[in-house]
Specification:
This protein has 361 residues and is mainly α. Helix content is 72%, strand content 0%. The protein contains 17 helices and no strands. α3 packs parallel to α5, α4 runs parallel beside α6 and α14 packs antiparallel against α15. The longest helix has 27 residues. It is elongated, with a radius of gyration of 24 Å.
Length: 361
């Protein structure tokens, strides 16, 4: 069903309501339809009536009404009787998306965030496409909405029924959005969603191998791009310098991926690709140390980022290299403001990373 047809269905349902169908006639639940492999015309009408009623609350109700509408519109996708059938998921999404898009086109942030959360639970190609189109700051100026878009895309990837094409398109769209994202909180959620893709549970037959490879590719691209932006920032550009707060949890994710026995077959690839980027955390500290120290939260984040980067580099070097890691504690050196020792540590890693196997020989 296209957007125009869905609008007409919703409009007809509203007209029926005005003609005398009372609130009591609205279905209290869609649980009877969720698992059905096919739906007839009456089933579709019941779903549309349910959707129209709670979408109206979402679009026009007060704060409590919006909360109720969100809960009722998400409820069918969290059905305790089993997973939603493809027929139900598709029909339900068609009945919701036109109004969700209208809400997102409007200025109300609270209604918009709730609409995004609902879309995340739908998990269809059409719903994740709607989310991906609003991932970038150039398309969605509100940071709260962009943050929830990243989370909703992850929810769709984990629990939806997405085609391989839609899955990849959403991930690449999110990575492109990260290239212009200036809010570190949003960027952190974007990193989390792409990192989650690396551990996708899809089977090889379902394209899981390609998805995991794309996840690793995009994670590397996002990390390199973020480091590039931080290192290109002037000392006064606190917005870009603050992006290190989004990098810190991603560095931890990289470390855990490297240690994960289920991802062992990718260990060499991850190690060789990520080691040069992890070492660049030293460059951030050496270049922007003064500005970073002026903020207690940023200073703490820098110390932890250095430690995580160095720990992961040591794991990689012990596994793939000659186990020549420098003997230093970068987090303590940062706390002691020992810039010279940090510089020596960076030079030591630079020397290691120009050797085999990191140089491709």
């Amino acid at each position: 069903m296209d957007r125009k047809s869905a609008f007409i269905t919703t409009w007809l349902t509203c007209m029926l309501a005005l003609a005398g169908v009372g609130v009591g006639d609205v279905p209290t639940s869609l649980s009877a339809y969720v698992s059905r492999p096919s739906l007839d015309q009456q089933d579709t009408a019941e779903i549309s009536e349910y959707s129209a009623y709670y979408l109206d609350l979402l679009a026009n109700g007060d704060h409590e009404a919006v909360m109720k509408a969100r809960a009722k519109l998400v409820e069918p996708m969290k059905n305790i009787r089993g997973n939603a059938s493809s027929a139900f998921r598709s029909t339900y999404a068609d009945s919701l998306i036109p109004t969700l898009e209208d809400i997102l086109d409007g200025p109300d942030v609270y209604r918009g965030v709730n609409a995004i959360q609902i879309a995340g639970f739908l998990g269809t190609d059409s719903s994740i496409r709607m989310l991906e189109q609003r991932a970038a700051a150039s398309n969605e100026p509100n940071a709260s909405r962009r943050l929830w878009v990243a989370i909703a895309i992850r929810e769709s990837m984990n629990n939806g029924e997405l085609s391989l094409r839609s899955f990849n398109a959403a991930a690449r769209g999110l990575a492109e959005a990260a290239e212009e994202e200036d809010d570190w909180r949003v960027l952190m959620r974007q990193f989390e969603t792409v990192s989650n893709m690396v551990k996708s549970g899809r089977s090889r037959d379902e394209g899981g191998e390609d998805l995991r490879a794309t996840g690793r590719e995009l994670q590397l691209r996002m990390m390199k791009g973020t480091l590039d932006r931080i290192l290109a920032a002037d000392d006064g550009e606190t917005v870009h310098i603050e992006l290190i707060q989004a990098l810190r949890p991603n560095i931890f994710d990289v470390q855990q991926q490297y240690l994960d026995p289920e991802l062992m077959q990718y260990r060499r690839e991850v190690g060789l690709n990520m080691a040069p980027q992890l070492a660049r955390v030293y460059d951030v500290i050496l270049l922007h140390g003064d500005a970073l120290r002026n903020d207690e939260e940023l200073s703490d984040c820098c110390g932890l980022s250095l430690r995580l980067s160095d720990e992961t580099l040591r794991l990689i070097e012990a596994d793939l290299g000659s186990d020549e890691a420098p003997d230093l504690e970068p987090e303590q050196l940062w706390k002691d403001n020992d810039t010279e020792a940090l510089r020596e540590g960076r030079e030591a890693w630079k020397a290691i990373l120009t050797k085999s196997p990191y140089n491709g020989r």
